[in-house]
């Protein structure tokens, strides 16, 4: 359910204003803060990097535990946090779950930090 | 001192690779996680928004307490966290400290979430 809400937010033009733009409302600030909390962990950042950079755009959970010296349940926990933040989505097919990054969410974060007026062209 | 190191990192081409790009190293993941920890708070996000969007690019600390129902020391604490994360820098002139966003840092974060291959053109 929450994933659907996240995706709907993305279509709202107010959602994607940069930090250098209009005043950020309390609700949006709270929602963004929860996304950054999900990103505030080195293992989750590396997992997101692995998922977002995989050829074909989709990573099997079976390939995500290998680079980390962590148990499968720990990796699953981190993947759940990323999923709840709307950064990745997973689909079970047979034995494994396959994850992909949610491009709308990453693009929104990219736009949040865009500084058109200050960035040298 | 740490601010200088942050600015040097920005000039390193490895620093600015997107999450959809090369493998994120453990050290960079740890450093980025600490930046996202600084961003994982609604008040700090709103402060950064106020500072990044102010006309002239510089905000007097005297103007930053008004929109929040928080004490001056609490606001100062949040500003310190943003400063330590390299997101803003402050300069004391007379009675007040004036803050501005660090464009290299925000641009780096913007690039981190860029998805050139997935974003519709």
From TrEMBL, chains A, B:
Record key words, sorted: DNA-binding, Transcription, Transcription regulation
Task: Enumerate the GO terms in the molecular function aspect.
Answer: DNA binding; DNA-binding transcription factor activity
Keyword DNA-binding tagged? yes
Q: Which residues form the HTH arsR-type domain?
A: 24-121
Keyword Transcription regulation carried by entry: yes
InterPro entries xrefs: ArsR-like_HTH, ArsR_HTH, HTH_ArsR_DNA-bd_dom, HTH_MetalResp_TranReg, WH-like_DNA-bd_sf, WH_DNA-bd_sf
Sorted alphabetically, which SUPFAM superfamilies does this protein's record hold? Winged helix' DNA-binding domain (SSF46785)
Q: List, alphabetically, the Pfam families matched.
A: HTH_5
Q: What NCBIfam families does the entry give?
A: HTH_metalloreg
Q: What is this protein called?
A: Transcriptional regulator
Q: Which organism is it from?
A: Actinomadura rubrisoli
